[in-house]
């Protein structure tokens, strides 16, 4: 069932076109993650879904009704961003109660909701604190609990974890995804981090310069990106881009696709070792090494083209010469007109 339907959506700020002719649907219970570089129109698209931005043209429909025409008190939509959106003068308990009172629930229903979000987000010992007395992780747990307490049909999240450090971010992300699955909430989540996107999404939508350029499962977008931007957004360690005519990479030319000017290879897809007789290899002298803990990222130049390779063994050293090759299935061919 299409819970959210976006038809030919355009949003302009003065002469600037921020969202341009976007067609997108979100199924009930789906977790859609929106990826895109800064300025791609992600937040504007999300705000249009919330009814906070009026379309210049086109429509955003929620359960068949225009989002901007649904009265605020009847919108079953919650918004969560990186600034937590907690009332600073109210305690955690009072913030939660304010949200629940707007839903006109009975005292017993409100009590049950509070107990449930306490179990999921472990906020019981924080209830008497003001937001200023919370750490970043605690504030985000409270903000998420507040959003989920009202049982929204649609939850919109604008990079909610971006201010948190790595370990805490992973812990909260895992907990949040479990809660979203439990409550079967329909979700649209803006992310920059590919690991975050993969952990959340049942489907990805990629925006570039206000346009929707690709949708698909995380696996589909990762394996067959529709543009250079899409490939890089799904690549934690970047993408090596090589013109198909580049010297030193002659073995790639045997797999060139007609009309494609550039090929991308992710660092994790290079095979390190002797060249196979079927696809040859390139020679790389390692100049830099970045330690990743579980592996290392080694880099060097081949004919003035910087190449990075993921070394799972962690044994390669600076100055060492490598033979690198790649399976044809891992080549990302990009149309000459879509190199941006």
Give a verbal description of the structure.
It is a single chain. The protein has 340 residues and is α+β, with helices and mostly antiparallel strands. 26% of the residues lie in helices and 31% in strands. The protein has 9 helices and 19 strands. It has helices at residues 42-49, 92-101, 107-121, 136-149, 166-183, 194-200, 218-223, 228-233, 250-253; strands at 2-13, 16-27, 31-35, 57-62, 65-66, 77-81, 154-158, 186-190, 203-208, 211-216, 240-243, 260-265, 271-272, 282-285, 288-291, 296-302, 305-311, 321-325, 332-335. Helix 2 (92-101) runs parallel beside helix 4 (136-149). It is globular. The model has no long low-confidence stretch (mean pLDDT 90).
In short:
Helices cover about 25% and strands about 30% of the residues. The protein is of the alpha+beta class.
Layout: helices, strands, pairs:
Blueprint: E1 2-13, E2 16-27, E3 31-35, H1 42-49, E4 57-62, E5 65-66, E6 77-81, H2 92-101, H3 107-121, H4 136-149, E7 154-158, H5 166-183, E8 186-190, H6 194-200, E9 203-208, E10 211-216, H7 218-223, H8 228-233, E11 240-243, H9 250-253, E12 260-265, E13 271-272, E14 282-285, E15 288-291, E16 296-302, E17 305-311, E18 321-325, E19 332-335
Parallel strand pairs: 3-8, 3-9, 6-7, 7-8
Antiparallel strand pairs: 1-2, 1-4, 4-5, 9-10, 11-12, 12-19, 13-18, 14-18, 15-16, 16-17
Helix pairs in contact: 2-4, 3-4
């Amino acid at each position: 069932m299409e819970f959210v339907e976006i038809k030919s959506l355009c949003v302009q700020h003065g002469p600037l076109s921020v969202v341009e002719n976007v067609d997108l649907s979100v199924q009930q219970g789906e977790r859609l993650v929106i990826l895109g570089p800064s300025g791609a129109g992600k937040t504007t698209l999300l705000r249009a879904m919330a009814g906070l931005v009026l379309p210049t043209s086109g429509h955003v429909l929620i359960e068949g009704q225009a989002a901007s025409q649904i009265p605020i008190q009847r919108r079953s939509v919650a918004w969560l961003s990186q600034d937590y959106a907690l009332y600073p003068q109210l305690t955690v308990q009072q913030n939660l109660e304010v949200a629940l009172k707007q839903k006109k629930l009975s005292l017993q229903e409100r009590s049950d909701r509070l107990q449930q979000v306490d179990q999921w987000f472990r906020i019981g010992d924080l209830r008497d604190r003001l937001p200023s007395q919370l750490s970043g992780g605690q504030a985000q747990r409270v903000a998420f609990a507040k959003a989920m307490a009202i049982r929204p049909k649609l939850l919109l999240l604008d990079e909610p974890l971006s201010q948190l450090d790595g370990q805490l971010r992973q812990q909260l992300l895992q907990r949040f995804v479990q809660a979203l699955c439990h409550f079967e909430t329909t979700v649209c989540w803006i992310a920059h981090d590919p690991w975050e996107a993969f952990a959340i999404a049942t489907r990805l939508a990629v925006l570039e310069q206000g346009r929707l350029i690709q949708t698909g499962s995380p696996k589909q977008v990762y394996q067959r990106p529709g543009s250079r931007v899409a490939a890089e957004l799904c690549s934690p360690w970047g993408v090596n881009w090589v013109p198909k005519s580049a010297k030193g990479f002659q073995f790639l030319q045997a797999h060139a696709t007609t009309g494609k000017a550039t090929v991308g290879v992710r660092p994790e897809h290079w095979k390190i070792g002797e060249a196979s007789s079927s696809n040859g290899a390139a020679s790389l002298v390692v100049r830099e090494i970045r330690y990743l803990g579980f592996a290392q990222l080694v880099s060097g130049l081949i004919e003035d083209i910087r190449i990075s390779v993921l070394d799972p063994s962690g044994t390669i050293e600076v100055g060492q010469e490598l033979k690198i090759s790649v399976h044809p299935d891992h080549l990302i061919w990009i149309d000459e007109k879509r190199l941006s």
